[in-house]
Amino acid sequence: MVRKRIPKSGFNVFxxxxxxxxxxLALAWSKSGNKLGWLTSDDDTSFLHVWNRVEAAYDAIEILxxxxxxxxxxxxYVLFLDQNSQISRLDLETLDVLIVCDSNLxxxxxIARSPDGRHVAVVSExxxxxxxxxxxxVVYEGSGKRLGGKRMRGRDVCFNISWHPNxxxxxxxxxxxxxxxxxxxxxxxxxxxxxLYDVAWSPDGKWLSAATAAKTIVxxxxxxxxxxxxxxxxxxxxxxxxxxxxxxILASQSAxxxxxxxxxxxxxxxxxxxxxxxxxxxxxxxxxHPHYPWLTHTEKVxxxxxxxxxxxxxxxxxxxxxxxxxPTITYTSAKIVLVGESGAGKTGLGWRIANNSFKEHPSTHGxxxxxxxxxxxxxxxxxxxxxxxxxxxxxxxxxxxxxxFLDDVDVxxxxxxPTKTEDPLYGVDYWIKQLSxxxxxxxxxxxxxxILVAAxxxxxxxxxxxxxxxxxxxxxxxxxxxxxxxxxxxGLTELLTQIRDxxxxxxxxxxxxxxxxxxxxxHVLRLKESPNTGQSIVSLDELRRQLRTHxxxxxxxxxxxxxxxxxxxxxxxxxxxxxxxxxxxxxLIPELLxxxxxxxxxxxxxxxxxxxxLDE
Length: 616
Prior knowledge:
Elements: E1 11-20, E2 23-29, E3 35-42, E4 45-52, E5 57-63, E6 65-71, E7 77-82, E8 86-91, E9 97-102, E10 108-113, E11 120-124, E12 129-132, E13 138-142, E14 146-147, E15 150-151, E16 160-163, E17 169-173, E18 176-181, E19 188-193, E20 196-201, E21 207-212, E22 216-221, E23 226-232, E24 238-243, E25 249-254, E26 259-263, E27 268-273, E28 286-288, E29 294-300, E30 307-315, H1 317-321, E31 328-340, H2 346-355, E32 367-371, E33 377-378, E34 384-392, H3 396-402, E35 411-416, H4 428-441, E36 450-454, H5 466-476, E37 480-483, H6 492-502, E38 510-514, H7 515-529, E39 537-539, H8 540-549, H9 558-570, E40 575-578, E41 584-587, H10 591-605
Parallel strand pairs: 23-38, 31-34, 31-35, 35-36, 36-37
Antiparallel strand pairs: 1-30, 2-3, 3-4, 4-5, 6-7, 7-8, 8-9, 10-11, 11-12, 12-13, 14-15, 16-17, 17-18, 18-19, 20-21, 21-22, 22-23, 24-25, 25-26, 26-27, 28-29, 29-30, 31-38, 32-34, 33-34, 39-41, 40-41
Helix pairs in contact: 3-10, 7-9
């Protein structure tokens, strides 16, 4: 049953099939590409749908299963996990089912044979893993919390798995992306924390991509194992991703049904296919044909019915790669933090860096935030480079909260008052240790460059000699030492130069976003930075009115606005609040929540009975 569609540039739908099911669990081509299978469920009944493109034949087979399926090299057979957690083989010609062996897993969900046919991986919902060889002997087993004998933080769930094209690596998507190296069963590559729904390797194995709950797609360089690009554009959680056979196109599908195509040459968005029906249902699967530029995806037909459609499209890759339906901007941001003891002069120096002027400030409680335009630049690959400076309060009551904001720091400015009579460097060691710990817990190989800054040098004579400070810096691996004055501007040029030279711009992952997302982001950050708006909370409707007043096109949607603000919230720039009626509000000063948390901690510490708690 074929529906009429609006043709897209280079996007030709040549086959559609409607089926009835409440959700689509899996979608896969056979190795030869002659058969397409998709697994659906409806209440307690599951069906394996098989389309034979050579014979133009379709069949739906009822099977008792609890997990995904995998075509065998001989595409007459399909492996699947039955209701008793056993690995079974289905003969597609006779419909006979042979039980191969027990998976020995609780709630096994995923099964996949490696591309070279030598191994079969079975993974449970809790990320327990079994790898079988050709004789169905277990050659590897590991648990979600301890894979390969190494403790894995947060590895207690799995949403999908993917074999590397050379069959050496198995990637698992869950709270993070975990890669198991079959050449060394004890070695697990823990790549990053994200909250992932799907993972996919590029055909040449150079890239590992992940669909995230943060409405983005993360691209990792598999050599460095660090993020290379973050792709923005979806308005809801990204559920499924797939590379084309030639590696030129990456396709993604989000929970609202939107399909986006990305040019892998520069990761720009080149096509958007909007769903016929917008509905957050469980029909969000897509995959490319193993040899041809054919994209297959499933989508909902009607909100009120359980009818879905399998859509098979032929892509003109050359035409798509040279078309730009969604203008994009590539940018990256560096995070600079000002830390030190209370009264060291952090806020005054931050104001001087941001505004090139002096302003008297009381002691900061909580956090402050500035965009440093004079440190902005353009990378050799055309990526816009932005710098954000965070001023973290130094009072002991805020230390516990602010230690949580030291992940992903690119450069740390640790301030002290050199004119202080008693121990001028008091507190510096604390912040250096916190910066080191936060980077280790965030899976960064080394702590960020630390610049030791003597503030307020105009107010008196330093109590430390140059040799003493040099020895202190060498012993702690401090990058450099600079004397500054927020009042006179002394040392400011040298400090800015040192910051600029310390930011590892070429190693920073870039974000590819739409022009709409970028304009929303820039406007919200201007609102946040401006001291004269008097706004700390703004509604989505008010923000839309402001954006239209500032020249935004009138056709941008509320979903686009909420998605863009959500990306800012992920970086800690704003917070999204919900009213009792479920309406969204944007808190421009999320540090108010941090201050509240710090105040609760302080009051708990003051408990007269020493209980460390508060009365309700």
